[in-house]
Amino acid sequence: MLYVLARSLAGGKREGVLSALGTFAGGMVHVFAAALGVSVILAESAVAFSTVKYAGAAYLCFLGVRMILDARKPEAFVAGSVGTTTASARNPLWQGVVTEVLNPKTALFFLSFIPQFVNRASGHVFLQFVLLGSISVILNTTADLIVIVLAGPLGKKIRSSATFRRRQKTATGAIMIGLGTYLATSENR
Q1: How far is CA 133 from CA 3, 69, 99, 123, in A?
Q2: Which residues, at least 6 apart from 63, have a Cβ–Cβ distance to it below 8 Å?
Q3: Does the model's pTM come out above 0.90?
Q4: Is the torsion defined by CA of 87, 88, 91, 93 positive or negative?
Q5: Residue 139 burial (CB < 10 Å; 0-12/13-18/19+)?
Q6: pLDDT tens sequence across 136-168
Q7: Is 105 helix (H, G, I), strand (E, B) or coil?
Q8: Fewer beta carbons below 10 Å: N end or C end of the chain?
Q9: Are 118 and 103 in contact (CB under 8 A)?
């Protein structure tokens, strides 16, 4: 949600929605992986979990550093170029997918939470798992879309002031680095 909020504030509603759709697609990757049993590997293998965890943390830090560096580029803040900065030109949909796919805690959530509601006696365990996981991802995406709508007025203010925008991008980059650091230093289980 913080990732989608940051993208919405920095790039507007379009970037926020594309980021939310990206995290939706990444969430669905985890749903299908868990339904197929692939996520069990992450739950059972400390090496696999750590690899995904550190890759996700590094990616968030990379995005944060890039955002801070983009905030320092004077050409990114020329009047009339709000929608065409280098940060905005990057594809928020794919960044959302990668950010979510590289989040091992999402995989573990689906492995630990969804099975409690799957009724093996009813059959079609795979379909039940996918349906329940899809409902969860849809609810998360709905929350992201609400955040995007609520961020709209603040985002307009941010994008109308070059100084404010530069500071916001720097702060957002620092938050992304903080999230990556938190992910990297959090307990594995």
Answers
A1: 21, 37, 18, 17
A2: 95, 99, 173, 176
A3: no
A4: positive
A5: exposed
A6: 999 999 999 999 998 877 777 666 777 877 887
A7: helix
A8: C
A9: no
Give the integer Cα–Cα distance in Å for 96 and 162: 25
Give backbone dihedrals phi and psi of 12, rounded to 5 degrees, phi first.
95, -175
Amino acid letter, residue 117: F
Q: What residue type is assigned to position 170 of the chain?
A: T
Q: Are 55 and 164 in contact (CB under 8 A)?
A: no
Euclidean distance between CA atoms 16 and 156, whole angstroms: 13
Q: How many other C-beta atoms are found inside a 10 Å radius of the C-beta of residue 126? A: 13
Contact by Cβ (8 Å): 11, 169: no
Residue 144 DSSP symbol? H
